[in-house]
Structure formats: C-alpha cells, structure tokens
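User:
Hi there, any thoughts?
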Amino acid sequence: MVAALTAGWLLWRGIYDVSPRFDFILISINHESQKVLSGETLRLHPKDSVKILKISTNMLSDLGVRLVSRNFDVGALRHEEMILSTLLPNQEIFDHYNFTVWIKYRNQDLGYIDWQVQPGAEDWLDKASRTINSDHRLAILERAAQFLPDNREIKARLLEEYRSLKRWKQLAPMLEDMAKKKPDQEILNDLLEVYTGMQSKDGIISVLKRIIELNPDDLENQNRLAEIFEGAGKLKEAIIEYEGLLGRLDKKDRLPFYNRLGYLYTKIGRFKKAVFFYLKAAELDKKDANLYYNLSYLYEKIGQKEKADFYLGSAVGLKSEDMEGRLTLAERLIKKKDLKEAKKYLSEVLKEKPKSLDALLLMAQVLEKLGEKKELKEIYKRILSLEPENETVMFNLGALEYETGNLKASLNYLKTYLKSHPKDVATHEIVLDIYKKQNNVEMAFKEAQVLVELRPKEAGPYYYIFDHLAAKGNYEGIIRVMEKGLEANPKQTDFKMYLALACLKTGDGLKKARKQISDVLKEKPKSLDALLLMAQVLEKLGEKKELKEIYKRILSLEPKNETVVFNLAVLEYEAGNLKASLNYLKTYLKSHPKDVTAHEIVFDIYKKQNNVEMAFKEAQSLVELRPKEIGPYYYVFDRLAAKGDYEDIVRIVEKGLEANPKQTDLREYLVLAYLETGKEGLAIEQIKKILKVRPEDIKLLLHLARLREKRGEYLKALAAYGKVLEKSPDHEEAQEAYLRLRLKGVRGEGKE
C-alpha cells in the first residue's frame, strides 16, 4: 500500500506540478542533433530535413506539453522527419520566414524559439543562372538583394545584370553607394559609363571630378570634363578646366584650347581675356582669317578701334578687300562646309549690294546645302529678276517649287524652261509627275508619250501609258506602244506581259500573245502571273493538252489555287482520264464541299467506273445539295430498290417531294415503295395525286382500281374500273373486273 500510494503521489505530482518548466528542444537537422534553448533563434534552410527528437521539461513524460506556431505545422515534426519546405505556406522556398514556436503546457506558455527559414545566396544565384528570360532573372536578383542586402555575391551579380540590360537608373545608386564606401577608379569608370548611358551631364561631371581627384594627371578626362561643362552651358567651369589643361600641354598642342578659351571668354563677356587667348592662337596660326575677324570684333567691343581696324584689315587682306573679301571668305567657308558662317558674310554683302549677282549665286549654293528652301526660292527669284534668261536658275526654281508642293508655280517655270530645252528628260519626268498629282490624265499621258520618244529604254512611262489605255479599253493602242517598247527593250518581260494581255483582250492576236508569254516563261519559268495569263490564252485557243501542263505548273507553284485544281479536273475528265480527274476533284471538294458541279462530275465518274457505292454516296450528296434536281433521285431509287431498301426510298422520296411537289415520277417511286412496305393506303393517296396531273393514265387508273378491289373497297374499285372503261371501252381486264363486281352485288355509283 505504501508503494502504491507513493507511486500515485509521484504520478499526480508529475501531471499537476504547479511550476512546469521548459528546458530545451533536441532537434535533428539533416541527421545531426542540435539542442535549442528557450529564446534562441534557430536558422534553417527550406531544404533541411528536420525532426523534433525531444522536448525537455519537468513534466512526467511531457504530458500536456505541445508546440504551437502560427501558419506553421511544427507539431508534425514531432512524429516524422520532414523536408522543411513541405510545411511552408504554398511550399515557396524563396520567401524568408520567421516563425515563433511556443512551448505550451496546456494553455500556459513555457517558452519560445524563433525559427528563421530562408534560402542561401547560392540558391538565389543558382535560380537566376537557370532563368533564361532577362526580366525574370532581374526580378529574382532584385528580390534576393532585398532579402540579403549585405551579400556581396548577389550585389555583384545584380550589378552585372543591370549593366548587361543597360538599366542605368537602377545601376547608378548602387555604384554610387559603392563609390562612397570605396572611391575606386574601376567603380568610378563603371559609374561614368552609367551616367553616359543615361545622358546625365550632371552625373558625368560629378564622376569626372572624382576621377580627376584620384588621378590629377588624367588629361583626357579633364578635357572631357571641360567639354561637358561647355555643352551643359557651364562656361565658367569649362574655362577653369581648359586653363588647367594648358599648363600641362606642349606648345604645339595648345592651339585648339586657345581658340576654345577665346570663344568661351567671348560668350561670357570677358572680352580682354578672349583677346589674350586669340592672340596666343594667332601666334601659332597666322593664316586663320577667323582669328583676325574675332580679334577685330573683340577690340571693337573693348573700345580699341585702331586694333579692331588692323585685325579686320588683316582678315580681309588674306584674299581681297572689303565686300569682295567677304565674298571670297564666303566661298572658302562654303568649301569648308561652314555654311552658317558663309551665310552670315553673304547676308552682310547683300545688305550692302542687294543686286550683287555673285553674292546671290553664292547665297543660293549655301541655302541649297542648308535645305532652307523658303529663303532659297526668294534668292532664285531675285536672280531671275536680274537675269531672266538664266535657264539653270529657272529649272532649279521649278524643281524647288515642285519639292515644296507648289505644283502650279513649278509647272509654269518648267514649261518655260522646256521651250528652250524640249528634250530635257529630267524636266519632262517632273512635269509628268506634276500632271499625275493634279489628276490631269490627258496631259500626263502626253508627257509619258514624250518620254517614251525621248528615252525609249526608260520603262517607267510605259507603265503609265498602259494603265491609261487599259482604263479606256484601248488594247489596240497598248499593242502599238508595247511593240515599240519591246524594240528598245527586247528583254523587258513586263512589256511582253502587257502586249500578251492586250492581244488576249482583243481576241485577234492569241498566237502573238502565246509567243510573248512563252518568251517570258523562258526567262522566268516560275512566273505565276505569266502562267496564269498563258492559261487564259490556251483556253481561248482550245489547246487543252498544253493547257493541262500549264495548270500543273501553276499548281506546283501555288498548290492551293482551287480554281486551277477544278479546271485541271475538268480537262482530265473531258480527256477521259477519270482517275486523275477524280483525284483533283476530291482535293477541290475538301474546301468546296457544296460545289454541285464538282459533285455532278464525280458522280458521273463513279458511274463510268462502275463504282456503285461511291456513285450512290455522290447521288445522295446531290440530292441534299440540290433537292429540285431530279436526276440523282433515279439513281438513288434504283440502288435502294436493288437492295430492297424501300424504307430509305420512302424517306428520300418524301423529302424530294417537299422540294418537287409536282414531280409525278417521284410520286410513282413513292407508290412502289409504299406498296413494298405494306402501306397501300398511302400508295393510293399518291396515285390519286398523280392522276390529278395525268388523268388519262389508264395503267395507273387500272392499278388504283386493283388496289381498291384488293382492299375490299368495292364501290370505289367499281368507280375506278368505270373510269378506265370511259377512256378505253374495249379494255378487257376492266370489263371483266367491272362485271365481276356487279355480279357480287356492287350496285352503287361510287366516286373516286
């Protein structure tokens, strides 16, 4: 009893101890045991194999102890070893999870352990490497960087991806962050590439400054920084950089920088400094007139008139003096393609000498090259006012008006020009195009004829002539023009085609058309247009054998030409080649299953081949497609009657009578079918309907009388026999039957 009481007391104390305590959890991770205390963090990989081996408490056999976690079935791990990803929400292994696992005794919290489940950097990188789509791959790497912001491998891979995709906006802040931590030349070069790709002048300037700070002897980047400043309108900053470069350059390399500094100081209004640098440039290049013009301008700005005049004289003295010098300088600038400067000087000359023909002609060159058509037109008009006979200017003005869409004005100038140059092909071509754009068909046609005369080897006008004559139906005219065109262009296949088409349309020159197309096909044996045209010609000539070959060639190029397939089938059918015809028609009917004509030919072929079953199917198809056509019903009736299938005859003929209610032949078939199927009453009704159409049909009337007598309808039978006798008084069978019925006592005058 003492032992029992002691054991009971110990059991009660183990279950109901007032102070339950949690010590640790023993967990197997990939078959390696790990002890975890309350409040600790357990870091796991989604692919880890996990099992809870033991929960250590002061409870007897851990009775009432349980594990609880939200959105995570941690209790399952107490029973079996599992891959952790199978317990994750949606089994998504690339999310980062934080689960708090509470150790409870009944509803009392004994402690907790934080479980962190997340993939490693190598998992993200492996997934990215296996992803082909660049956008998806980038999204994976960006997500990895969010979860593992301090991982260098992921950051490096993401930078590489941004660079390959030219995602400069995403790449820039990452590189900037790296540059702040470590201002490395390589990182700055990468950052320079990024800002260049972004076309961010501020970014480029910022990076170049940092590169120069790291490497003060980097003259190339300092020059680039100066150019960027200049392009961005930051002229003072550009000046500082250019001046910084000068002291490090050899004297022979300084000329362009002196020029740039002179220009920039001029732009910011510091004229004395500009003079200083232009003088330095002039020491190195004494033949540059622009330097002297610039110095003249600057000295004038700072009030040193004598020096301004000196340098102006030096500039103009290089070629000539005053306005003539400016004209010469303008010519040089035109040769150098410095057109805007040339235009400036010429404008100055024309202000002084508005009727200077030389200046006007030079200005015309400049404006033409600059594409300033509006001003150019005005210059041409001024030249013409001084030189009305200048035919070159007249043509140019006509061409310019044409290019700017002023067709009426262009036509006036060009017509005047053509009076003295009636054989100028280029002018006639423009005039032709103007008339076409004005829809002046007759004048355009005349111009096309002129061009054909002037340049018979030029194909273009012939096309217009053809279209014009074809629209009028003047195929005789087309024949004349194309024959002339072929004299000058014997290898022009288009002309041969046009000539052949015209001959085909007139119907008189079919042999000529055939020859022309044959020539085309020698050069272009796979010309579908030529083959189709040849088919039309041969069809009209009745050359069926050759036509068949042409059709086959067309099909080899255009297998789906259904018209040709059908025509070829008809030719084979007419030639008695039933098998070949049938093959073509079967192909044709696949895309035209309701073509009655095709089915009729197929029906006839099967009949000629004694293919009863297929002929019967075709007859049924024809009955369906054209129920008012009687012919196929005969074949269907004969076939079904031969098989004794009178039920189908009834069905088909009844449907046929819906479409042909006055067709007595069909009703006769129906009478026979009804009789064969024991439907004598229905047969009688059909006979009566036939007799309404053919009241003199004695055989049918006699048949009706027999049926009436057979069915015991003696009165009606007597009347029917009587009608036979009315129409044929000497009819022996009717006489005998009539007498027989009277002897039986049939006395009334029945009506039928």
